[in-house]
Amino acid sequence: MISIIVPIYNVEKYLEKCIESILNQTYRDLEVILVDDGSPDGSPAICDRYAAQDSRIRVIHQINAGVSAARNAGLLAAKGTYIGFIDPDDFVAPKMYEKMVSAIEESRSELAICGYEYYDEEYAVDEKRRYPVKPNEVISRKELMRRMSDMPPTVRHGVVNKLFTKSALKGLTFQEGLRSSEDVLFLTAYMERVKTAVFVHAPLYCNLVRQGSATHGGLNIQSLADSFAAHEKMYRTIVDTYPDLKDHSLAFLLDVCLLKYNEAKGKLSSLNHESRADASARMTDMRKFIKRMARQALFNREIFWKTRISYFFVK
């Protein structure tokens, strides 16, 4: 059985499509755990209505505590051999979990990863970002870590297009209190438990792009700064496990941190005087981090030499 965990907050406009896509899976042996994280809109009522219609659905209502706490509540309640996560404004293809379970069992892997495509709020697919379909692929832990450090990552830094084994998840939870990069920390810890992972190279997960969401421009400067620590943790774990991946992983770390720093810089002008002072202090820390890591990358041949130098002049 698969336990599918959906953390829910303020998504009544999208929630029914998400739930329907799960219930319409060709793989029928599943439980759907809908975690209402104190949502103030009509989402709790939608959850209860679907639970009354389908015995595979369980609803957890809790005081708002954030997406990590909601997912942790779902993990605590999960009974399945496999665990999957779906964001409540996204949806999935009908054969997603059938193909994921088949791949993970045939390869005897601890992790299955599928492809994804992007949709706008009218549910039209982004034709420019179509996922290339190709045969399934089994990769080692080392290759998984290497691809996590590609830029852009060829292994997405989120849990939603993945299937985990409950046995390998034992004791692992999402760090609560974070507003960003909780998936990065979770996946970093899980990677260490993986011997092999299997790629299902088909666009089975459907990501709805909403302006202002956490993954599409909705993070504040505090959250962007906090993400530095999560990505550094990923870098340290990869390098400690496979030292020869240092250059590749460090190149990614600097690239992603500079992107987040520039995003934070773009938000600074919209803040009031008091908020700007605090944000400026956080950005100073971000800038110092980039320059400190740049010193370690001075002779990194995976980074163009002009880019290596430019990190020292970040303002």
What's a quick, concise take on this entry?
The protein contains 11 helices and 9 strands. It has 315 residues and is α/β, with parallel strands linked by helices. The radius of gyration is 20 Å and the shape is globular.
Question: Overview of this structure, please?
Answer:
By secondary structure, the protein is an alpha/beta fold. It contains eleven helices and nine strands. It has helices at 12-23, 43-53, 67-77, 96-107, 141-148, 166-169, 182-191, 221-241, 246-268, 273-296, 305-310, and strands at 2-8, 30-37, 57-62, 82-85, 91-92, 111-119, 137-140, 162-165, 196-208. Strands 1, 2, 3, 4, 5, 6, 7, 8 and 9 form a nine-stranded mixed β-sheet that branches. α7 runs parallel beside α8 and α9 runs antiparallel to α10 (273-296). The chain is globular. The mean pLDDT is 93.
